[in-house]
UniProtKB/TrEMBL annotation:
This is VOC family protein. Pfam families: Glyoxalase. Residues 1-116 form the VOC domain. InterPro entries: Glyas_Bleomycin-R_OHBP_Dase, Glyas_Fos-R_dOase_dom, VOC_core. It comes from Halobacillus salinarum.
Amino acid sequence: MHGVFIHTRNLKKSAAWYSWLLGLPFREEDVQSPVYNLPTKEGSYLTIDDHCNDPSYQFEPIKTPVFNFCSNDLKRTYEDLKEQQVPIVREIEQHGDFGWFNIEDPDGHVVMVCGDIR
């Protein structure tokens, strides 16, 4: 997979939020419509797109996860996100020593967080 697109209504707000979530550097002055590419170090690209050049585009939040982020300590990540008041829309589910839960981004997209449960 080359990259993931996240569609947004507010490019700067989403770029700041995903940068915070992933612990990536963020400078608001680097955000230029229509897209912002998060500075990932390896793996797939993560691009946020505001569709400002597409007048026919109609934004709709995605309510089932189409991608996920990984955590080395899922319970700690869950507690950290809950403490930061990130909306948790599905509680931790566990299968053996692996689990997942879902959060909601500022646009209402549901994102899955997976990982090891200690």
